[in-house]
Amino acid sequence: MKIPRFEHAVLRRPFSIFKADAESVSILYKAVGKGTAALATVIVGEPVNLVGPLGNGFPNIGKEKFPVLVAGGYGNAALYLQAAKLPVKGVAFFGGRTASDILCVDEFKTLGWDVHITTDDGSLGTKGYVTGALDAGLETQKQNFQCLELFACGPNAMLKAIGDRAIEHGLTGWLSMDRNMACGVGACLTCVIKRKTAEGWEWARCCKDGPVFEAREILWDE
């Protein structure tokens, strides 16, 4: 995205699509730097230059699967379209540092999702990490493990933890990787991760080959 009053920036800013229809696209963001601060000043009717959609998204699954969504912070913005299109509405775990980091709960509940909230400081929902809530949820679903499929978006440490749990329990876990993306088309190689291959590993570009990867594909740097 090219942002008005931030034209001096050579590179665009990457955002997940939150909602979309035939006439509009919505994004969900927090003003944390100069780019998003400039975006917050955009007024209705002012043009914004977009390129997209880029990369891949979360895959479709059949009605025989029970989906589990896991989001850290604003990560649930990237999960909303998936939540809307899945044939089965499952359970969603949203975590944040504090209550102000938990957004869009009513939107997911309106879609029919069972939403569980955790905050680090206990200001909303259960006190603790979202991975702890997920562990408790998985414990109650032991008899249905073969039906579960995980979808996650959030900070990299959380994504690794979710991926580890998916592999440990023999589940399929789809992770939307959080990497700084500069060009968005796979040319600059600033967003690469290590992806496992039969021979070892290769570099994969999050903006073009991802950002969604299955947990077993990713070779995490220790």
* Unreliable residue runs: none
Count of domains = 2
What's the total count of β strands? 12
Main sheet summary: 7 strands, mixed
Backbone CA Rg = 18 Å
Helix content: 10-25%
What is the name of the CATH topology of the largest domain? Answer: Rossmann fold
How far from one another are the termini?
Answer: 32 Å
**Tertiary shape:** globular
Number of helices: 5
Strand content: 15-25%
Instruction: Provide the residue-averaged pLDDT.
Output: 89
Strand order of the largest sheet: 6-5-4-3-7-8-11
CATH class of the largest domain: Alpha Beta
Instruction: State the order of secondary-structure elements, H for helix, E for strand.
Output: EEHEHEHEEHEHEEEEE
* Helix-and-strand structural type: alpha/beta
Task: Tell me the CATH architecture of the largest domain.
Answer: 3-Layer(aba) Sandwich
- In CATH terms, the superfamily of the largest domain is Nucleotide-binding domain of ferredoxin-NADP reductase (FNR) module
Describe the overall structure.
- The chain is α/β, with parallel strands linked by helices.
- It has two domains: 1-52, no CATH class; 66-219, Rossmann fold (3-Layer(aba) Sandwich).
- It has helices at residues 34-39, 80-85, 105-111, 130-140, 156-168, and strands at 19-20, 25-26, 66-72, 91-96, 114-119, 126-127, 148-153, 172-176, 192-196, 201-205, 212-214, 218-219.
- Strands 6-5-4-3-7-8-11 form a seven-stranded mixed sheet, with helices on both faces. Strands 10-9-12 form a three-stranded antiparallel sheet, with no helix packed on it. A two-stranded antiparallel sheet has the order 1-2.
- α5 (156-168) links the parallel β7 (148-153) and β8 (172-176).
- The longest helix is centred in the last third of the chain and has 13 residues, at 156-168.
- The protein is globular, with a radius of gyration of 18 Å.
- The two termini are 32 Å apart.
- The mean pLDDT is 89.
